[in-house]
Specification:
Length: 368
């Protein structure tokens, strides 16, 4: 009877590092992912800030990129972060279940708890820094615009809308409804023209910076883990994972790049969007380089690596879910009065772009 029982697998065999081959392909993958990440992140910034491209890239293309990227961020939080975190630090990965982590991790849904804590901490951090930032601006003599969104015509406005004393007292803000060549039209989604507009542009600089910095921090944590995983994954899984991560990083970069491109900064700070795009683009290649350097002793399926990856994924999930639902969905759609009055065609176009980004990114979760 005892002889018929299968012996417990050796943890060193289950959780130890696997042989890593295809070294040349893995090194080449670093540069391929770097190039695609740069392309996805830099395109919105170039299209928004380089006058030649701004004149030649149609507004609807930019609008598509913006909302497609927003959908990608939402799906990344659920499918590519929270779900893996539940696997990495969940009951199925405990030693009793044949995994590599301590059984105590299976006694509570730690991934969801960490996601909740991260989401709440992100909210508290934003409101505290927003208060401190606006107070600092007031002491310096600045007059930050109240946290608001576009009222009236959705055409692009370079800078805050003029506010007279009566409007400031009543809390309402009027925006010039005069039309300029290339602005959006309320009559048809096909006449998006060359306008490059985002509701966040009407927010104070402090709010803009906090929103983008939060998003960037979340995707950078995730990108480093992706790089480590790709560099140390088995040869059998490498090819599929490599292709999926190419699209993953490009699409995620598109979502981040559109938010960086809309930052309303003084001329002396115009380098910030470029720095943010470069930092994101380098994260996965750096993670891959580290993974290749320690490939003989590192296994992302080992107990310690699984816990570290699960904790970071859960934290990143909370950040991205807060950003996607509050900064991107609520502020861009629900509290943006332009979408209360624009044509149904314009609204449907934006929602379809958002759903397409979320859907494609969720589909990629089948392989990554």
């Amino acid at each position: 009877m005892a002889d018929s029982l299968d012996p417990m697998p050796d943890l060193e065999d289950v959780c130890g590092p696997e042989p890593v081959g295809k070294l040349g392909l893995r090194i080449g993958a670093i540069f391929v992912i770097l190039a695609t990440s740069v392309a996805g992140t830099m395109f919105p910034i170039l299209a928004k800030r380089v006058s030649v491209l701004r004149r030649h890239v149609p507004g609807f293309v930019f609008e598509f990129a913006k909302f497609f990227g927003s959908g990608v961020i939402l799906a990344t939080g659920f499918i590519h972060l929270l779900e893996p975190a539940t696997d990495e630090i969940g009951e199925g990965s405990t030693i009793s279940a044949g995994g590599c982590i301590n059984d105590a991790w299976g006694e509570y849904p730690y991934a969801f708890a960490l996601c909740l804590i991260s989401l709440f901490f992100t909210f508290v951090t934003q409101i505290v820094f927003f208060r401190l930032g606006t107070a600092r601006l007031a002491k310096l003599g600045g007059q930050p615009v109240p946290h608001m969104h576009v009222v009236g015509h959705p055409g692009h406005v370079d800078g805050p809308a003029p506010v007279d004393d009566a409007a400031a007292t009543s809390g309402s803000v009027s925006v010039d409804n005069s039309l300029e060549k290339g602005q959006y039209s309320n009559d048809s989604a096909s006449s998006l023209g060359d306008a490059f507009h985002d509701a966040s542009e009407q927010n104070p600089v402090v709010a803009q910076m906090m929103g983008v910095a939060t998003l960037e921090f979340g995707v950078m944590l995730h990108s480093v883990i992706i790089g480590l995983t790709l560099a140390t994954t088995s040869d059998d899984e490498f090819n599929i994972l490599f292709v999926v991560i190419i699209f993953h990083q490009m699409f995620e970069g598109l979502g981040l790049g559109t938010r960086l491109s809309f930052l309303q900064l003084d001329a002396k700070f115009n380098w910030i969007p470029w720095l943010g795009a470069s930092a994101y683009s380098l994260c996965t290649p750096i993670g891959m380089a580290i993974g290749l350097g320690v490939r003989e002793g590192l296994s992302m399926s080992s107990g310690s690596a699984s816990v570290a990856s699960g904790v970071l994924d859960a934290i990143s999930a909370g950040i991205l879910l807060y950003t996607a639902t509050v900064e991107l969905i609520a502020h861009e759609f629900i509290f943006n009065k332009m979408y209360h009055t624009c044509s149904w065609a314009r609204l449907v176009f934006s929602l379809v772009c958002f759903a397409l980004g979320a859907g494609i990114m969720a589909l990629l979760g089948k392989w990554a």
